[in-house]
Amino acid sequence: xxxxxxxxxxxxxxxxxxxxxxxxxxxxxxxxxxxxxxxxxxxxxxxxxxxxxxxxxxxxxxxxxxxxxxxxxxxxxxxxxxxxxxxxxxxxxxxxxxxxxxxxxxxxxxxxxxxxxxxxxxxxxxxxxxxxxxxxxxxxxxxxxxxxxxxxxxxxxxxxxxxxxxxxxxxxxxxxxxxxxxxxxxxxxxxxxxxxxxxxxxxxxxxxxxxxxxxxxxxxxxxxxxxxxxxxxxxxxxxxxxxxxxxxxx
Length: 250
Fold this sequence. Notes:
Protein name: Type 11 methyltransferase
Family: Belongs to the methyltransferase superfamily.
Pfam family, one: Methyltransf_11
Region (Disordered): 1-24
Number of strands: 7
Keywords: Methyltransferase, Transferase
Largest sheet: 7 strands, mixed
């Protein structure tokens, strides 16, 4: 499969906004609570940055937090407004956040921090975050300790290099922030072969590929799922690991 630019991939998700909202997994409550527990005081005002269609926004709002979402893509933002109408959804990006200084207690980032210009974004996050507040990037990944999942994700990568690892991003430093802490949480999503393929079709690499390339890849994945005993019939649980980073503003 051809290797599109990072910018093309980062801006591709709006083309599949409705499918993203329907098929991407949510985030476990314990991961969100772990992130919040790193703040000094009791966090209440929270920014969901790069909020997409609101997968993480929903979990933050469910805790009774005062949530604001910021998302650059208008199609993703429209889905967010549909899914979480109670949360203000603003146009903006990590490097230029449309909020005043020291206005939030926590900044959460679901499945998006690796797209940011990290040094610039952390400066801007530091501007809107009060001293003692926390920045909490998190990601859902397939649990590759499960053999069939490891085979499936290797096939899905189709020879492409692995994305930047959370361990690499953990090493990012900024003078306004303490070193990142890391925690992992077991998670899962009820899937069928069809819904898992719909999920894969929301990955940026698949979205931006030539139609014949993406169709061929999804065909190979469909064959794998049809032949794998764990996924061949009916519903199954897709094992996931939610990995969260946490850093406190000095």
